[in-house]
Specification:
heterodimer, A: extended, B: disordered N terminus
Chain lengths: 236, 205
């Protein structure tokens, strides 16, 4: 049976304001006005065609995968992104190729005699651990866990749910709880993904205390010019 | 408005949500992701755009975000687990993308410090102003005042009152507790009221 339950939802007193009954009519008007905001806003004609063009342009396939959507960037930005990706790939290849067949050198401090500096972050692994009920082969689902292995000296692992919930903060000098453990010279962590949300995983080298929000974490990374690796996980 | 009709059904609970989007789910069951996304676009495209536009405050960026939402929907729809309505799922994507866009574009702008809003009940502004103005004036003032809310607060207010989601549905989108979102909205409403009163008072002077 189809029934609109919204009318039955209890409206908390606090939602109507600071509890002043004299204000109730004002808040009721406010709520009514909120329902009418944006009334004249409509997408540009042909927007569906542009979506299909983005999809059909090879930007994406129905095969699900975690991470941010990059496909729909504006055209002018796509060119810049493509060039950036190509340059980054070339740089990564140059960095990776010399040592892939050689015995693994220790992370370079940049002072080794003639050795190619190796980004310590290449050792970082952020991988899914499937939950008991595996819904699919890839992507992230509620019940999965994310395994973060950062066997790098000075590494810290921070995991946020949404923008403002710090779920976990591990570093070699502060192993809090069973979710954190030592790994090599660094640290490893395992976090269960309990609810549908965007989770943000940050591995930073040489960071201080974990910021309490993801925004602050981004600011701290930028402020300290810290080496880091980030990954966003869309969990459904 | 088909969008509102679908919203009503989709917000009404699992049973009604099923009836609103049965055709989409049937298309999915047939493996017709393209057809399913086409139905979602025709049903929710306008609402998603409106939400994105109100969130980011810019036509071009809203176009971009709306496009991202449906591209991501196309990519991820096959793994939709049917634990919520499709509308909730879609607006969850829209919320994430809009907040990402705001962060990336640095469009936070000026805003009230919601957590330490001083003197919300101070009566410096004309407290009866809300009762004197027309509904149209109220809506116009409100649209400007929404721009001054922090993105998370604005999103919660819009999803609750403009798009008429329940807190439980919003909690699924945001990965937060319903009570947290309820509290966020409760803090935002007096800020909006005060902003409107202040604007009306300023205009009257």
């Amino acid at each position: 049976m189809s029934q609109d339950h919204r009318g039955d939802e209890q409206v908390p007193t606090g939602e109507l304001g600071p509890g002043d009954p004299d204000r109730a009519p004002a808040y009721e008007r406010l709520r009514q006005a909120l329902r009418e905001t944006g009334a004249g806003l409509a997408p540009r004609p042909g927007w569906e065609d542009r979506v299909w063009a983005a999809i059909d342009g090879g930007a994406t396939t129905p095969r699900p995968g975690p991470g941010r959507v990059r496909e729909a960037a504006p055209r002018w930005r796509r060119g810049v992104i493509a060039a950036g990706v190509a340059l980054a790939a070339a740089a990564a290849l140059l960095l990776w190729h010399p040592w892939r067949h050689a015995p693994a050198p220790p992370p370079s401090t940049g002072t080794g005699g003639g050795t190619t500096p190796v980004d310590p972050l290449v050792a970082v692994r952020i991988e899914p651990v499937r939950g008991e009920v595996q819904m699919r082969a890839d992507g992230w689902a509620v019940g999965d866990s994310v395994s973060v292995d950062a066997p790098v000296a000075g590494a810290s692992v921070w995991v946020y749910r949404g923008e403002d919930r710090l779920l976990l903060a591990c570093s070699a000098r502060a192993l809090h709880g069973p979710a954190c453990r030592p790994s090599g010279a660094g640290v490893a962590a395992l976090v269960r993904l309990d609810v549908p949300a965007t989770y943000h995983v940050v591995v930073a080298i040489g960071a201080g205390e974990a910021p309490t929000t993801y925004d602050e974490a981004l600011a701290a990374l930028a402020r300290g010019d810290l080496r880091h690796q980030r990954r966003d996980l869309e969990v459904y | 408005m088909p969008d509102r009709a679908a919203a009503t059904a989709a917000s009404a609970g699992p049973e009604a949500a099923g009836s609103a989007d049965d055709d989409v789910l049937a298309a999915l069951d047939r493996g017709d992701v393209r057809g399913a996304v086409g139905l979602l676009m025709s049903r929710y495209g306008a609402g998603v755009y409106r939400y994105c536009r109100q969130m980011v405050g810019d036509d071009v960026l809203a176009d971009d975000v709306q496009q991202q939402v449906f591209v991501q929907a196309f990519r991820d729809l096959a793994r939709f687990e049917r634990r919520s309505s499709l509308r909730t799922w879609l607006f969850g994507i829209a919320r994430h993308r809009a907040l990402d866009a705001i962060k990336i574009e640095g469009r936070r702008g000026r805003r009230f410090p919601l957590d330490e809003q001083p003197g919300v009940e101070d009566e410096a502004a004309d407290a009866s102003a809300l009762e004197k103005i027309s509904q149209a004036e109220m809506v116009r003032a409100l649209e400007r005042c929404l721009e001054e809310l922090a993105p998370a607060a604005k999103s919660a207010v819009l999803l609750r009152f403009r798009e008429e989601f329940r807190y439980e549905e919003m909690a699924i989108m945001a990965g937060e507790k319903p009570g947290t979102l309820q509290a966020r909205v409760a803090r935002a409403l007096p800020v909006l009221r005060k902003c409107i009163e202040r604007r009306l008072t300023d205009e009257a002077v």
